[in-house]
Amino acid sequence: MASPSPSPASASASASSCSSFAIETLTLNATGGGALIPGLPDDIAELILASLPYSHQSRLRVISRSWRALLTPLVLFPLRRRLRLPCHHLLALFPADPSITPPCLFDTATAAWAPLPRMPCNYHRYGLSNFVPVALGHHLYVLGGSQFDARSYPLGHPIASAAAHRLNLAAPPPLSWERLPDMLLPRGSFACAPLRPSENGGDGDEGRIIVAGGGSRHSMFPLEGNRMSSVECYDVKEGEWRMRKGLPRDRAGCVGFLVKRDAGEEEEFWVMGGYGDYRTVSGVVPADVYYKNAMVLGLKSGKWREVEDMWEEGQRRKLGAVAPLDGEDGQVKEIFMLDSNNIFRYDFALNRWIKESSLPRKIPLNGSCGFVAMNGELYVLTTLIIQCQNTSDQRRVSKKRLTIEIQIYDPRKKRWRFLTTNPPFNRLIDFKAAVTCTIQL
Questions:
Q1: Which Pfam families match (predicted)?
Q2: pLDDT per residue over 293-307, tens digit each?
Q3: Which residues contact 395 (CB under 8 A, 6 or more apart)?
Q4: Where in the chain is the domain with CATH 2.120.10.80?
Q5: pTM
Q6: What is the CATH code for 119-318?
């Protein structure tokens, strides 16, 4: 007989007891076992240790008992808030199916990588693609997607997934994924956005996640799959999905984000791009019909409104990669798009994409790249293989090393800078299939 799950009150009580126990342990070690860092006052040592990058914390916990207690997330995160240390975003990179290839966190400030655990493996389902990761607080969610099922017929035909998983980065190590209730409808390639806890929501408001549209298309079959228009929302506190008013038309392959431009206006959920209907070329080959408009849902009114076409006929075939840029208050302030080798800024008043800049290092026509916005900057990621020559022994064969080249653009200063890093992967990353998101710690 399964044991009953703990209530939210008991869970919060246990978390607070663990935090108080860790703080008490830290105090005992610091007073009875010597200083945190010899020769420095404990308040300065706490500031130094609290400023360590996330990727280094797990390796430094073994230094001493006091360091292990301090670098525990239940102690470290409240300490960072008390010290008013600035929060910054980390890049979460999913190069392939997260149940096979483990995702990683990348800290752009230190160019350091931190591996994350694999998602639980299902022996009957494989090849997860077109899933959507989203961050809410210290939690990382992986929702939906399209995958293959060895029990289905015909074999090799992808089906949509309704699975939802969550990873708590503030939990004590080792980290592990938690299975959440499935979405009401299976979907992949959908618009998604986190709804942070409102100021008037009280202590019981833990935020929500809204998803819209989607379909069953898989990255291996780019011309197949269905479309859908349904919208549903996940309540983190209640742990359940609820249906919302759907889109006026079917839309898949779209992107979603929240916008609140003025203090008096309601918060809006924008759904841009994607494809709906399809047409045939020469009466045989199916071709997607891409949307040039956007749909906007008022979160208070619950009504959809349509934003007219955002570009003229002939300017582009479809919407490029979109990256919303958050302001200092965490609200989306500007929307940017990477189209070919150019970056565009969306003008809300004109309903047009205005050219912002061009990439200094051009990407080939058929090349793949990642595009993400965090910490007030735009990041364009590409992968390449570099030959590492052995200078000590010329007779040895040179090794090949995977490198990610990042072009970073600051919209405020209008300047570019470059960064290269060696990720902990052993194969090229296809950013047409890879998925990225950002999480603030």
A1: F-box, Kelch_1
A2: 999 999 989 999 999
A3: none
A4: 119-318
A5: 0.86
A6: 2.120.10.80
